[in-house]
Design a protein that fits this description.
This protein is of the alpha+beta class. The protein folds into four domains: 1-33, no CATH class; 39-82, no CATH class; 106-138; 149-270, Rieske Iron-sulfur Protein. The protein is built from three helices and 14 strands. It has helices at 104-137, 141-146, 178-185, and strands spanning 16-18, 28-30, 61-66, 69-74, 149-152, 161-166, 169-175, 207-211, 222-223, 229-233, 238-241, 246-248, 260-264, 267-270. The strands form five sheets. It has a four-stranded antiparallel β-sheet with strand order 9-10-11-12, with no helix packed on it. A hairpin with a 2-residue loop joins strand 3 (61-66) and strand 4.
Length: 271
């Protein structure tokens, strides 16, 4: 007869078998008997409450036996106390047995005031940040100063045209005579290539303000020349009248009129 014993590290006490070599006899394996769980009386235990061994049906710590030994599991924490939140509660809701709905509106007023104040402060701060960023990215004071041109009208005699530099462009300011004004007002706009009446091109009849750039290819016309007594572009032969309107030549449009105004009777502000 030949026998063998199975051994394992943690399972050795529980796994033992005897094999008998015989044709008519089966292999019989033996297992340990059921292990009864011990019962320890809680009153007789000297361990702290968290480590007391109780039987089934009691709260606390349960002890069980497994293949790897004993283990303990704690099911409840009975030694913890719920904190008191009374100092943080509103006076109208200190009593938990009463409904909080009657005082709900009054309790929300403070929250709404705080939220509105915070939103207003944040909006004001954001506005200042945006204005500061735009001011930083925008043109400087010297550039803005170049964007406007102030002209003393008393320095321009009647019948003369004076050329200024404005935003790196030539600017024509013409003090027209009464004869020039009457001649330009008598022109029928329907006969013009770019129809415009003289009244539409001047804010004061005696003052004509136009950019000195030919609308054909950007040349600078000559003042007081041409067939119509206004401006003449010698590059390609465009003729303008004393109102800056194209009358002859390849230019398609009238001379451009910039934005300007008269702060007083003696001052012209362009830009």
């Amino acid at each position: 007869m030949m026998s063998s014993v199975a051994r394992g590290s943690g399972l050795a006490p529980y796994l033992q078998a005897v094999v008998v070599q015989a044709s008519a006899r089966p292999v019989v394996a033996s297992f340990p008997a059921a292990v009864q769980r011990p019962y320890v009386d809680p009153a007789a235990s000297t361990s702290p409450p968290a480590a007391r061994v109780l039987s089934a049906g009691h709260l606390g710590t349960s002890v069980s036996r497994s293949l790897n030994g004993r283990s303990q599991v704690r099911f409840a924490h009975t030694d913890l106390k719920v904190p008191d939140f009374s100092p943080y509660r509103h006076d109208s809701v200190q009593d938990g047995s009463k409904s909080s709905q009657p005082s709900e509106a009054n309790r929300k007023v403070f929250s709404y005031v705080i939220a509105a104040g915070g939103a207003a402060t944040a909006t004001y701060a954001a506005k200042n940040m945006v204005v500061g960023a735009l001011s930083y990215l925008g043109p400087s004071a010297d550039v803005l100063a170049q964007g406007q041109l102030e002209v003393k009208l008393g320095d321009i005699p009647e019948g003369k045209n004076v050329t200024f530099k404005w935003r790196d462009k030539p600017l024509f300011i013409r003090h027209r005579t009464a004869a020039e004004i009457n001649t330009e007002k008598a022109v029928d706009p329907s006969t013009l290539r770019d129809p415009e009446h003289d009244d539409e091109r001047t804010k004061k009849p005696e003052w004509l303000v136009v950019l000195g750039i030919c609308t054909h290819l950007g040349c600078v016309p000559v003042a007081g020349a041409g067939e119509f007594g206004g401006y003449y572009c010698p590059c390609h032969g465009s003729h303008y009248d004393a109102s800056g309107r194209i009358r002859k030549g390849p230019a398609p449009l009238n001379l451009e009129i910039p934005e300007y105004n008269f702060p007083d009777d003696e001052t012209l502000l362009v830009g």
